[in-house]
Every structure is written in structure tokens, then in C-alpha cells.
Predict the 3D structure of the following.
Amino acid sequence: MTRVALLRYPGTWSERDFAHAFSLVPGIETEILWHEDADLRGFDAAIVPGGFSYGDYLRAGAIARISPATKALRRFADDGKPVLGSCNGFQILCEAGLLPGALLRNAGLEYRCDWIHIRAENDRTPWTAGLGGAVLRMPIGHGEGCFVADQDTLAALEENGQVVFRYTDAKGAATLEANPNGSLMNIAGVSNEAGNVVGLMPHPERCVEALLGGTDGYRVLANLSPSLAGAAPAIYR
Amino acid sequence: MRYVATLHVRVRSEVRDPQGEAVGAALRSLGFDVTAVRTGKEIVVTFDSTDEAAAADAVRTMGTELLANPVIEDYEYELKELARA
């Protein structure tokens, strides 16, 4: 069994959606961990789910950054274990310095709640094996998803292949119209240099079965188990 | 000693400030000839420290560790010793 920790901060709201999503993936079991006593020993991967941790006070993700769970997460990430942050989880990982850049208020000033497309740019992360170039349809729901970084960081991200997901149209073209929040270079998700920590604004946990309107999130989450076993990624059914 | 630090946190000038842009548009709709608006926040912290140098060190640590995100924000601060009652 692959054991996945789902971190819950005060205001996290997507941890049970992740638990449900992973319950559909054979070979994975999950546990929700309260941030104050999160012990990641014995886990194979960790998820930082979305929500409004600490009410988004100060900046989205800023206060979660100094929580005991984030300290444990930093050690876990340093050990090379797979970490995935979605939405507010992405914001927390950036604030914690586990991922480069920052997420600002959407350029269009709107809270965006919609289905969008992203293209997987890099298949070398534990979450995107076998998905290189795939166009995925996923929901977003955020007011602060505008990815920014200084020019040097941005150039390094592109050069190192740390841009994991980009907003595109349904055909996979990264157009201005396909960018829901003004993110630089249409960036929807990035990884750390080692590639084991990935953050993205869209919600893979909200599109794991036809009833939810889409199944592309399953393709990301289902990758985990075979990646850890070193086997070829499961063919998506 | 008790001190009061006032931190002014602003999004760096090279980073876009959509909130400021929206406020600018609203001011223009009121008829003002506004060319730019930048927004920020003011954070007032009352705390105890041994002396002014230690208090200033503490404020700078608060600023870089939590109150401002150095990736996108700059901050300035004013520090005052609170007069004893």
C-alpha cells in the first residue's frame, strides 16, 4: 500500500475530496493529518489540499508557512518524497519556499470558478509520469492564482523544465484567452528543482469520476502508486 | 521596554498590483485624473524587547519571516518606544 498524508490546516477544505479521490485509486490509502501534530514518518507522499488556510489572512498561505506541519513537510520534501499542493496548497508551498515564485490576486480581479485546460509540460515528476504533452481539463476556483516570479527565476524555471503545467485552450495552445488569471507565461503549476514537489492552481481531486464532470484529475493522482513502485504508469481507463 | 512598530508593506513596483489598478479605475470613474494607484497594508505590532537595537532586529525578522513576502513585497518600518504610563 502507498500511504498518502493529507495535511489539514485551519481553513483547509479539500482534504476530504482528496481522500475520496484517492479511494478510487487501487493501492493507495490516505490519512488526514491535523497540522499541529502532523508526523509524516511512514508516509510515501503528502498532499497540501486547497481551501482558505488561516482565512487567507496576511497573504494566502502565509501563516500556514510557519505551522509545525509545514516544517515536517520541508524535511519530507528534502528527503525526495513526492509532495503535491493544489490551489491554496500551491500558495502554501510557494510561501514556504518549497516552490519558487508567488501567487498574486488574479489579473482580471474576478474570483475564477470554471473548467479550464492545462497542458502537462514535464513528465519527470511523480505526478505527471506518462502525461508529457497531455491536455487535461480541470476545474479551478481561486481569487489569487496569478503566478509571478522575477525574470531570472522565470528563465531558470523554463530552462530546468520546472514549469509542470501551463494554461492552454482545448487543443493545447497557450493563448492569452486560455489564461484565467494573468499568470506569467500561462504557468498553472511548477515543481522544485528536484521535481518531487509540485504545485498547481487547478483541482485534480475534483475531477476523478464522470459524475463530477471529468476524470483528468484521476490521471494525475493515479500516477503516484506506479511511480513509487518504479513501474510504468497505469494506462488510464 | 515596550515598543510599537508600524510596518508598511507594498507589492514591489515591478510586480503588477491588480487591486491598485481597480481602485485607480474607480477613482477615474469619480472624475479624478488618476494615473496610478498602488495599494499596500499597514501592520502595527506592539511588543516587548530589551532595547531599541534588539527591537529593530525583531521587527526586521518579523518583516522578512512573515509579514512581507520578499518574492513580491517590500516593507518599511517605524519603531517607537511606548511611553510608560
